[in-house]
Amino acid sequence: MTAPLIIFFVLAAVAVFGAVSLILQKHPIHSALSLIVVMVALAGLYLLMGAEFVAAVQIIVYGGAIMVLFVFVIMLLNAGEEERTNLSRLATYAGIPLALALAGFIAAAIARSGGYLPAPAPNGALTSTKTLSMLLFTEFVYPFELTSFLILVAILGAIVLAQREN
Amino acid sequence: MTPPGTQDILRVLPELAWCSAGVLLMLLQPFVKNRQALTFISMLGAAAGTLVTFKAAFGEGFGGLVQFDIFSLFFHWLIGLVAFLVILASDSYLERENLDAAEFYALILFATAGMGVLASAQELLTAFIGLEMSSISSYILAGYRRDSIKSSESAVKYFLLGSFATAFFLYGIALVYGATGSTNLRTLATADPSSNLVRLGLSLILVGLGFKVAAAPFHVWTPDVYEGAPTPVTALFSAGPKAATFALLLRIFATVHAATDFWFWAFWILAALTMFVGNLGALVQSNIKRLLAYSSIAHAGYILVAMAAITTAKNSDSGLDPGAAYAAVLFYLLSYSLVSVGAFTIVSDLGGQGERYVNTDDFAGLGTRQPFAAAALSVFLLSLLGLPITAGFFGKLYIFTAAIKSKLIWLAILMAINSIIGAYYYLRIIVVMYMHEYKGNVPADAPASLSPTAAMVVIVAVLATLYLGLAPNHILGIVLDPNLILSGR
Question: Half-sphere exposure of B457 toward its Cβ, with a 13 Å CA cutoff?
């Protein structure tokens, strides 16, 4: 087993552990902290694939800004422990087997496709920030610009739903 | 990697117009307090997006990310028309419920732009952004009546389940990309149909899109969201996003051969389930918004029958022309959208402040109290039922014929059974309106007549329904083209 492969499995295990903990924790703040673990582990995986820029953005935006917001909101709302209802217990009993089945299904499909994914990076390596930005502003400029409208919609939504009653 | 030029912009003119109109409304919001002026500007914006299609150029744009063809043109017209009518219908609603107009209209226009992106996207990431633009605007619109608990519930449910569906869609794209190294449908056209990863990715994409068109078993959100959302918004949900998502589904399906082969049984089962869930669910509803929501699920089922028919027709040794089945889907979407917008507009206007009068019992005696509204609603219900001289008749007929031609006899039989079940609850409303007396006195705050703007929408929808039912050939002439997808003018 080569070093990158070992690092991959360690990071992947940490990410999965964080994700499972995120769902199982009863207190929202513990869930939020588990989410940070997932984000950082993912950033490590991106770095392993040679995507430094995406890894850095992942840490700065998700691990940093968005998580701070999450924690602030939880603190401000003073959210307590989750309540369990009959329906949520039912969801646990039906959900866990179904989720495991889906995971097994996906794992089997990936395993049967030859053990590796023939994922070629289009237009050469995507490693450098320069090529990435070139792609964003030439080939993918349309979805890129549309994303700005998407963000505008989100801002508009925040204003509409949060403004004071008139 | 060439920077985009004028030719690329010409292929996304409608989206540009709708987005600009949305931004304009946001800028006008602090200065223009007159609701009617805002309504007028938004209607102009919605119409502008549709009218600029005359100037739009056919063909690929942005290096294959978008494809503007007759197919996409048709959907831009449909979506623009729906947005136009919904904005007009919202005017009296916003006044009655005392809601802000500028943001409401801006969100409708942004959602419309998102649907436009979906209709011409030829690449999965672009489609994803379009889907999100339309979905996120929809979540906000669903919760626009903030003083109503039902509206908030509707928004939260739609948001949570919608995000879940989006995750499926995105995971599907990732797997397809992993297997083929591309997200462009033209490249994916030759993807290996026997590859497990491609199949898995396509299945997840189908799950994500199945949620958006409210196909069973992904329909659970529909009744609650349709019931809680402001009724003009419900009209938009039942027509716009549904049509745009079907457009994307059709395009994936028509281009990617792996999907055509693989999705047949998926469509067969989805269609059968969706029809039964929708029609049986509608039987027991007393709230008319929920009833129409279940009916909307059932109609998605009928369209899925046509999708299954396309699969068989596209199979090269069947010797069938898939063009007729494509035309059936497009015609059905057009007729259903018009009827649905019309019906929800009537429900919206007769609901009274706070949408209190939306039970079937509240419609008792409507035939004598409000002959115009009752007659128009009857036309819409008969069209949903599929009676001759209404658009619904030809819509159903074309799908039925396509199913028979593709030798999907069982599916055609199930469709006929479901149409009969549907007849019960559609006719029940008509019976209640014309043959039942209102129990007790009609409440003083119940609206005595449709507002002028709503009446205009209803008249347009009735005329269009009858026109499509009497002379379907005009529209059919446009959509009946074996090379509809990818064809130019």
Answer: 34
